[in-house]
Amino acid sequence: MTSERRSSASEPDTEEIPSPDLVSEATRVLMENWRGLYTVPASGLYPHQWSWDSAFIAVGLRHVSPRRAQQELESLLGAQWADGRLPQIVFASGRDDEYSPGASFWRSELIPGSAPVPTAGLIQPPNHAWAALLVHEADPEESRRRRFLDRAYPRLVAWHEYLRRRRSDEAGLAFTVHPWETGMDNSPAWDAPLAAVRGTFGGNVPRPDLRHADVTERPSNAEYEKYLSLAATYRDAGCDDSVAATPFRVTDPGVTALWIRSELALGRIAEELGIEADHADRAAALTEALEDLWDAELGCYVPVDRVSCEPQRFRSITGLLPLIVPDLLHVDELLGTLHGEHFRLGRSVLVPSFDLTAPEFDTSRYWRGPAWFNTAWVLVNGLLECGLETEARVLADTMGARAVESDFAEYLDPITGAAHGTRRFSWTAALSLDLHVRLLEY
């Protein structure tokens, strides 16, 4: 880390952006969406438990109730498959017609080694160990009393082992077998790998999501048709991770960055439990391997299609998330890209999910341009990792103000700030609350 970066003269002055009632309103959203053992992302559009959502939600929920935050993660870990995977979705009973694809599509109970409850077979990015450590730190005494980490640690290790044994490419980086697994469903970075996948769903494409969100904000029918076809291929192969069962195989820098940060968190958890483990070495190996995804011309990391072996040369939010990784080689270049014309940190609303100058950029359609609160939260932590505390506080303050102003919208137009998607969104509330408590309350 250079001293010039830590004391950059280009850092903006801290701007006080009022966020009235952020704490009370964010808490209210989290309580509204609590379902006894876990939190739904939002009432209506998302009636089940989502994997990386629950981890993000637990980060904010720990400021409201550390015990509930522990339960949030424990509920998800309780749906772990025998091979170690944490499923993308844990389905609530009686809600199958409210989200597609639901439990009747996945039929996970027919797959050997699946969870004791209905789940999807896909996964999502591994932010869970990072969340578990933060939840423990919110109330270490209560965490130790409940043996939270004692019970979570072996399950989290098994999760990371699944990624290492079943989901790593020749470089040792995690690959995804469906755009949904990246958490950034319809990013333009997946267009070419998805277009190369043969096969069709062969039926009507159910779209219950359009009862809750405008068609201009959601993935298209054509995209959903391909998503369902790809998911059905994986399901029909028993959710096997072999090449034959996974015609979409993409290595994503954002997924790997979260894996590294969670591997380091596992190291901290192991120390707390008095366990000797090699998590730091594994994180270092992943950090070295991540350099395979660096694109010097674009100034960011890029996904690679492991079927065609072609890098997906776009500037997208996933390529900036490695800023959370300690000892990264290309921090200065990444910060230049974040501040430059493609993302315009401090001049756009939060951080766009895709290159503002690209022809594929869309202000309202899901991950093709809109600004999301979860990726902004990750980048606040990245700025802190870089020693840019002033910029981190400004982005955190903006998140809080925009969250309240938009009624905790799912995502925002990065140019106008207009709210899109559903409202009263749990991770918007949780992560804005987390940063407010950590960085902005005095």
From TrEMBL:
UniProt entry tagged with the keyword Hydrolase: yes
Region (Disordered): 1-21
InterPro entries given in the database record: 6-hairpin_glycosidase_sf, 6hp_glycosidase-like_sf, Glycoside_hydrolase_63, MGH1-like_GH
Gene3D superfamilies linked: 1.50.10.10
Keywords (A to Z) from UniProt: Glycosidase, Hydrolase
Segments forming domain Mannosylglycerate hydrolase MGH1-like glycoside hydrolase: 46-428
Pfam families the UniProt entry points to: MGH1-like_GH
Annotated family: Belongs to the glycosyl hydrolase 63 family.
Stated name of the protein: Mannosylglycerate hydrolase MGH1-like glycoside hydrolase domain-containing protein
Originating species: Lysobacter korlensis
Lineage: Bacteria, Pseudomonadati, Pseudomonadota, Gammaproteobacteria, Lysobacterales
